[in-house]
Fold:
Amino acid sequence: MRTRATFLGLVAIALWSTSVPATRDLLERLGTIPGTSLSLLLAGTFLLLATSAQTRGLGWIGRLSVRHLLLCGPLFIAYFACLNLALGMAETRSEAIVAGLVNYLWPTFVLVFSVALSPARPRPLTFLAGIGVSLGGIALAASAQFASLGIAPLVGGVLPLLFALGASVVWGLYSNLTRRFPQSHSAGAVGLFLFLGGAALGLASPGRWPRIDWTPAATLELAYVVVFPLSLAYALWDVAMRDGSLPLVGSASNSIPILSTAIGSAYLGVAFRGELIGGAALVVLGALLSQAAFRSRRKPPPPGESEPGAALRPQ
Structure:
């Protein structure tokens, strides 16, 4: 059981590593607003139906934590809005990969908010070094992209990165609050957040929906994004967090920036540049340094527990 659950956690990590390139390609095919709204609506419906089938009814809705819904729900929706806007607004696929890499600063922000919201205290120099290394990785990944741009294109290219940065900050806060105010049926709550986010976005922007060309490729890609990164990966991750090896799965999750950058370069046909992979590696190294800053000040956690941010869902 433990080995199987750990393996499922590794599968979830692999699925999440495909999220950025698959979502970017989907938004190119359907448009940023329609693609985001449809994927969130369908993924939310999928998770709501799956939770209802698992619990044999809708009684689970009445057992949801209202505090979790009110505090974490808006943050969850804001995260996907910021991330998809970043991926959709990027002028080129290379910019989209860099924006996805900025999003992977979220483990650092998980730790930043854990300092404010818990008694955990890191070693300041190690913690700041981790943040600095991660930001250096982003600068390296973006350097070749923006080196030859003028002022106007540069401003336009920075905007998606700012949205991606906002996504990473929001997810860091969400992750801390969802640990402080846990939910009785996490998959159902996530489904509800996804559904409401997709519905709100669709209702708020009816005039921005262009005519969608439903090609087989667009349909298959929408189905993939809905079923795998947005739905199935959450279920597999929950199994891993409950029954698997937290140290192994938590450590493996740090590889997502590198995996996502490599998969994105191959899937989107972007030149496999050393700056991208080097930047991704620095983001990973920065996250590891930030985590080490906490471990150096704390006793090893009891069996079944983990360091701050180690068992949170990556994206």
Q: What stands out?
A: The first helix runs from residue 2 to 17. Confidence is low (pLDDT under 50) at residues 148-154, 301-311. Residues 301 and 307 are 7 Å apart (CA to CA).
